[in-house]
Amino acid sequence: MTGFMQYSGMRCGCLGCLESKVTGDAGLSRRDFLCSTAATAAALAGASMISAPAAAQTALTPDQALETLMDGNKRYLGGQLKSFNEDLSILKAKTAEKQEPFAAVLSCADSRVPVELVFDQSIGHLFVVRVAGNVATPEITASLEYGIAVLGAKLLLVLGHSNCGAVKATIEGKAVPGQIGALYAPIWPAVNAAGGDLDAAINANARMQATLLSRTSTIISTAAKEGKLKVAAARYDVATGGVSLLPP
To answer: Residue 47 falls within a domain, yes or no?
Structure first.
């Protein structure tokens, strides 16, 4: 697991390269690309939990996986949730030994964004990774790669949300306690591109994180190029509960 520990520790270099990719610094982008992908490959190869990719939970195509999520959000908005009607004992029995989620979701850690509930999905359906600001740090990227390469997820959705505190704090740029300020660096490119407008920065951040995942991870980029994976960005409205897909 030495490779994984080295990979997960490259926080500063990765955050710098995150901004360089957005601003177009090809040298730093390539360096981070080679560094992150090589380390990830070593970690996956050396971890005992890695085996042959699992068969997808369903026969959904990447486009159908996205449609399934959006249909679930429509049920959520209409108060017609189906997931609560599923037999809990059967769900546990089917997922106790293995998981085969059809989608991976990178979401903000905000308590107002309950991902499974928002998309009306139950146990074993979604591989959810949450972090303040829905940013693609090395650890987050590695987790998503596992969901795609090993668990067979067909969709990778980066989900931002309205009134995001992490984006708002980055715009304000005030001193914060502890390590909270570490979130600023990966969010700043979106804030800069949006000119400090909160709503625009939230949307830009979700799109940029999706783009960075696609460009810096060979696992994700290869799966997407082969048509095995769809990468998309979306925005959740905490006031209405609706999810809107964002243009690339």
So the answer is: no
